[in-house]
Amino acid sequence: MKIKERQTQKIYPGKWEALETLDQKYNQIESAAGFPRKTRYQLVLSSESINILVVEREWESFAAMEAAYEKLMVNPAWHALNAESNAVIKDGYTEILMPLP
Q1: For residue 11, which of 93, 87, 97 has the smallest C-alpha distance?
Q2: pTM of the predicted model as reported, rounded to 2 decimal places
Q3: Nearest Cα to 90, choosing from 14, 26, 29?
Q4: Distance between CA 73 and CA 90 in Å, rounded?
Q5: 92 near 8, Cβ under 8 Å?
Q6: Separation of alpha carbons 1 and 17, rounded Å
Q7: For residue 92, pLDDT beyond 90
């Protein structure tokens, strides 16, 4: 069963250019781990801050997502990149969605 992963992140003001650099690095590491292509959105209109990034991916299955994340968890480059992203990403959360029949 396909599932959708949605990450919502609050970006520090003035850090959108730095986010682009980080994202290119993440793309390389995640692609090598088997992550599907992601779609990114910047919040334009909401009761929330405009400094919101939404990242969505569609996975073939929960098992495929789990296997890819297991590869990341043992990758020192990914952990270093996460530490680097703390200066750009204030906080965030992840949602996993499944389609209804």
Answers
A1: 87
A2: 0.90
A3: 14
A4: 21
A5: yes
A6: 36
A7: yes
